[in-house]
Amino acid sequence: MESFELQSQGFSLSGMGLPEIVMVLLALLLAYLAIVKKYEPLLLLPLSFGMLIANIPLAGLSAYDEGGLIYYLYKGIELGIYPPMIFLCIGAMTDFGPLISSPKSALIGLGGQLGIFAAMGGALLIGRLIPGLTPFSLQEAAAIGMIGSSDGPTSIYTAGILAPDLLPVITIAAYSYMALVPLIQPPIMRALTTKKERVVLMPPAEKTVTRRQKIAFAFGITIATLVLVPAAGTLISMLMLGNLIRESGVTDRYVRTLQNHLLNVLTILIGVSIGATATADRILNVQTILIICLGLFAFAFGTVGGVLIAKLLCKITGGKVNPLIGNSGVSAMPMAARVSQKLGQEYNPENYLLMHAMGPIVASTIGSAVIAGLFITYFGF
């Protein structure tokens, strides 16, 4: 497509065509959602800004402009450095108490993995249905499926090993849908639940979980993962190390650093780096659009799977589980839990679902990392 040139007072803007303009407008829309609508601004704002600067060609600030600042920042994603570091920070922020005190919540997290397999199957099928489209390989389909985990670091880690060529678009899709949780999940939650189910009151957990139990849980999960699914060891071990730092009670300085400073720095670096991969030539094509659609399909199915399992638990327990926590079967932490809380209070102001929703999210985070390890083990080159 022909580019246009604008010269004024020595300033030159060249190499921008209609695709680049479209991407800049999309970046501004995402920035609007972050600033005005406050949709996960900590992630969406740097992502939108990275997208903006990457689509002004003369700036040389895309993730592919060798020698530029963003080129080197993106290496943290490309080499698989940022995802385990994020898991370390998440571990330091996570209380495994809700999961340990209510093991049945792990079933909701298991249901939330439905999106992974739905998207993987869709990716394998779609190449056979659309004439002229190069089919996705098994490795690429598995990497695309991981978008359904709603876990950005896990999606990055898996794509970097199984489908490096698809890493940018998979990363963009995973983090974009994480940021848009407040838009995507509520309609699905309302559609799958009844008014009676939405007002179910969930009292605080009666069982107290001791620090010793939490520490034993972290060590146990680490050992089990390294023995049974070693390919998931990097992510799980970092998650559990972060949690041990939190629960040990002897490393307060580490806890403060991981929960705040390091996590904030990593979030900015990941957001800007991901946005800077969203150049027009890589985003505005059929394959990329299909992957983004499959990502939305995966995210929706993960939400559906979690809500359906939560509805089943509501029936089995005689109405002691509010199905609105089912959206937390996906591991979009802590966004999904906040959606559960907000929607729960909308229908019953006396309901406090936040901590109940954390159990499924933690289970889903562990589960999706294990599934990623299995994919790498069986489908890796």
Name the structural class: mainly alpha
Look at the structure and give the mean pLDDT: 89
Taking the sheet with the most strands, its summary is: 2 strands, antiparallel
Strand ordering within the main sheet: 1-2
Radius of gyration: 21 Å
Percent range for β-strand residues: under 5%
Q: How many individual β-strands?
A: 2
* Amino- and carboxy-terminal Cα gap: 37 Å
Provide the domain count: 1
Poorly predicted ranges: 1-12
Count of separate DSSP helical elements = 19
Estimate the global geometry from the Cα principal axes. Answer: globular
Secondary-structure element pattern, one letter each:
EEHHHHHHHHHHHHHHHHHHH
* Helix share, percent: 55-70%
Which SSEs are present, and which pair or pack?
Blueprint: E1 4-8, E2 11-16, H1 18-35, H2 41-54, H3 69-78, H4 82-93, H5 97-101, H6 105-111, H7 114-129, H8 138-145, H9 152-162, H10 167-179, H11 181-192, H12 195-198, H13 211-228, H14 233-248, H15 252-275, H16 280-283, H17 286-316, H18 335-347, H19 354-379
